[in-house]
Amino acid sequence: MPTEPEIIYLDNNSSTRVDPEVLEEMMPFLTSRYGNPSGSHRFGTRVKEATNLAHERVAAMLGCEPNEVVFTSCGTESDNAAIHSALQMSPDRRHIVTTSVEHNAVLNYCEAVVRRGSQVTVVPVDEQGHLDAEEVEAAIRPETAVVSVMWANNETGVIYSIEKIAAICRAKGVFFHTDAVQAVGKMPINLARLPIHFLSLSGHKLHAPKGVGALYLNKRARFQPLIVGGPQEGGRRAGTDNVASIVGLGKAAELAVKTLEEENSRVRALRDRFEKTLLAELEDVQVNGDPRARLPNTSNLAFTGVDAQAVLLKLDQEGICCSLGSSCTTGAIQPSHVLRAMHFSNERARSSLRFSFGRFNTEAELDKVLDVLPRIVRKLRQLVAT
Ligand SMILES: Cc1ncc(COP(=O)(O)O)c(C=O)c1O
Q1: Which residues are near ligand 1 (CB < 6 Å)?
Q2: N or C: which end of the chain has fewer CB within 10 A?
């Protein structure tokens, strides 16, 4: 098998490397243990035992019951399924409350249901990326079916007051969904004490493969599936189980629980050294998002006066991966909707890069990045000045 050239991967919010222990646990289900878990022979029921264990492991990570976990194909599907169900279960309520910094998996789904006659209120954030829970409360109307607020932002890492917002939704009698795709595996979550109806997560953000996700579905929440067919996942998500990936997500959840504390403090130290050094070495660098309420692995920085795309390309040539504070939509570079929602200028958004650290990053990698990145920024600034 061809090997990848040496890279320094600082794009863990985009996707993560599959943990070797996860892969090892998946392999039998891609080779010898290929039975359908819905089969009634022993070959199938032994596979079913493995998917049952995955339910248990994900439930242990979330602090919920195994049958409250429904495996899906990705975080996007989980987000769509939660909002879809809330609207279906409240036919007389056609209003959704969400925020301006959600992932497109939520925002574009909301846009799609608006085209079918629903209404959406998008609650703004401030310059730090924070959301005012009172504004969320004020946006809820008698015809609101569901409130959807992410637990942590994928671009800035800003963490939201999910406990507070969940309590508001309970008091108002509306469904509450949280997109926890970036939070799960990076911060402790205990759903046993929280009035949350739906929570979305995605395997490839926590060292499981791409193409598997899960939806936490509170056992008291009424639910209408998005994908209808066979009886899989208790009739809540039809389609033959993606067994190997479900097993992988289960293992990834077990590893996340085991390593969370230690991993987080190590990764936080890497991220903090990265920021501290850059802020000391370079002028005019701003941290995007409240540094006091962020995921431990995320650093979103604006390098005033430089085109972030040029920095990204130069870093890429050095084998360093990160991502832009903007996205490529239909061939044109658009400033990130998250940074724009934080009231930043197009210029600031276009000079911003996201660096997201993870389990496999090392101090030696950081040394190299801290050697290369300031030189690139200085050089590009010189070019602009001449
Ligand atoms: C916050 C958030 N929600 C949803 C998603 C979509 O997850 P998936 O790629 O599994 O569809 C992502 C992926 O980047 C994300 O960061």
Answers
A1: 74-76, 79, 103, 105, 150, 154, 179, 181-182, 202, 213
A2: N
- Mind listing the pLDDT tens digit for each residue in 75-84? 999 999 999 9
How many angstroms is it from 146 CA to the middle of ligand 1? 19
Examine the domain organization and report whether 159 and 290 are in the same domain.
Answer: no
Q: Are residues 183 and 315 in the same domain?
A: no
Of the candidates 364, 385, 386, 383, which has an alpha carbon nearest to the alpha carbon of residue 311?
383
**Per-residue model confidence as pLDDT tens digits over 53-110:** 999 999 999 999 999 999 999 999 999 999 999 999 999 999 999 999 999 999 999 9
User: For residues 185 and 256, is the Cβ–Cβ distance under 8 A?
Assistant: yes
Q: What span, in angstroms and rounded, lies between the C-alpha atoms of 101 and 107?
A: 9
pLDDT band at residue 274 using 50, 70 and 90 as cut-offs: very high
Q: Which residues contact 235 (CB under 8 A, 6 or more apart)?
A: 225
- Active-site residue set: 328
Instruction: Give the structural domain span for 110.
Output: 20-256
Q: Give the residues across from 178 on adjacent strands.
A: 199
The answer to whether residues 264 and 252 belong to one domain is: no
CA–centroid distance, 314 to ligand 1, in Å, is: 27
> Given the CA of residue 153, which atom of ligand 1 is nearest to it?
1
The reply to whether 146 falls in a domain is: yes
CATH of residue 232's domain is: 3.40.640.10
Tell me if 205 is assigned to some domain: yes
pLDDT band at residue 335 using 50, 70 and 90 as cut-offs = confident
Number of domain units in the chain = 2
Work out which ligand 1 atom sits closest to the CA atom of 77.
11
What is the pTM for the complete model shown?
Answer: 0.96
Atom number in ligand 1 closest to CA 210: 10
Q: Are residues 313 and 243 in the same domain?
A: no
Q: Kindly report the CATH number assigned to the domain that includes residue 364.
A: 3.90.1150.10
CA separation for the pair 134, 365 (Å, rounded): 43
